[in-house]
Amino acid sequence: MASADQPVSDGHPPIPLARVVISEDAIAAAMATLRSGWPGPGREVLDFEDEFAAATGAAEVIATSSGTAALELALALLALPAGAEVVTTPITFVATNHAVVRAGLVPVFADIDRRTGNVDAGSVASRIGHRTAAIVVVHYAGRPCDLDEIHDLASRHGVPVIEDCAHAAGATYRGAPIGSTHNGLCAFSFQATKNMTAVDGGALCLPDGGVPGLDTPVPDAADRARRLRWMGIDRSTYERHTDDGYQWDYDVTEIGFRATMSDLNAAMARVGLKELPAVNARRSEIAARYRDGLEGIDGVEALASPDDRTSSHHLFPVLTDERDRCLDHLRRHGIGGGVHYRSNDRFSVYDLAPVPEAHWFADHVLSLPMYPGLSDDDVDRVLDVLRTYPAG
């Protein structure tokens, strides 16, 4: 008989929370770039930016080294006054709010809707004050938040919105792809475990219309963002490699970041973008199978799924009354699980006012295995194990 801290030997291989599989096409693209003599930022990055702009409907795309870098770049473009407040969500990976603090700004946590894990627009409204300079939202687990309500609030108060789209590549809101639905700055992540992976990297999408807080047209803002991501240098190294040889002369117009995406990552991202519809379709099938199976299981429920938006299903979180016990139960049966996320106000670095709905959510949320390679039998096995959970 297995002890409490050992997996049950049931004849099945373990099912991890996530499994990263790089396609042969992506591997081939990476190898070609490594052999090209130019794996740094160059032609592949430029092509990826064009292709991601076409896929999202964004006016401009600036490829970055990470999703965090894309958030930091968005805040740098807005040039908000030091010490200004940014209304944000506590249910997110800490990178979202670290970017706010690193920009010299003060995060103010709005509460969330426990049914979805997304920030609650009514709570955002209650947190907006005379020091509010921006709103940051997260499309939690890949399910878009209430963008109409959030952007309406922002417009009425004259503040910009940054959308953390790290989970949301390929998601849609009322028929339009995330990245172009409103006049926000949208930051994507292509980190290893994301539903669209380039092993690492990110992108900042700028919309077609004017962005509150940007005092220049979008094309000029995009040009500035490209300088900022490469230390503030006015011409990239790739641009200075010409048929006449390497051009060493350049200017530094302002202090920038080291936040460029490499051609190696961009080559993989281009393949990932082509594969994204099929990847997300499989994730949707898995999510639907989970939802159907969970209907007959007491004590475990899926999050709400509004009909006017589609999720990328980067994660599949559920809510359960005794989360830690349920998580241990899964692990004893060789099934991985996770917690996304601990409410950020509970971290020592963010000793801010409590947000009760976020606390409740953080104490009840459990992420089930979710990745395209998960078979129907794997999903059924997870559900079968969950059916034995209420009885202990």
Question: What does this entry look like structurally?
Answer:
Helices cover 35% and strands 14% of the residues. The chain has 392 residues and is α/β, with parallel strands linked by helices. It has a seven-stranded mixed β-sheet with strand order 1-9-8-5-4-2-3, sandwiched between helices. β10 and β11 form a beta hairpin. α3 packs parallel to α4, α3 (67-78) crosses α7 and α8 packs across α11 (376-387). The radius of gyration is 22 Å and the shape is globular. Residues 1-7 have low confidence and may be disordered.
Summarize the structure.
The chain has helices spanning 24-35, 43-56, 67-78, 95-102, 121-127, 147-157, 218-228, 263-294, 323-332, 356-364, 376-387; strands at residues 60-64, 85-88, 106-109, 132-138, 161-164, 172-173, 176-177, 185-189, 202-206, 241-242, 245-246, 300-302, 309-310, 316-320, 365-368.
Count the E strands: 15
Note the run of SSEs as H and E: HHEHEHEHEHEEEEEHEEHEEEHHEH
Major β-sheet annotation: 7 strands, mixed
SS-based class: alpha/beta
Strand content: 5-15%
Oligomer: single chain
* Sequence stretches where pLDDT stays below 50 over 5 or more residues: 1-7
The end-to-end span amounts to: 16 Å
Spatial strand arrangement across the major sheet: 1-9-8-5-4-2-3
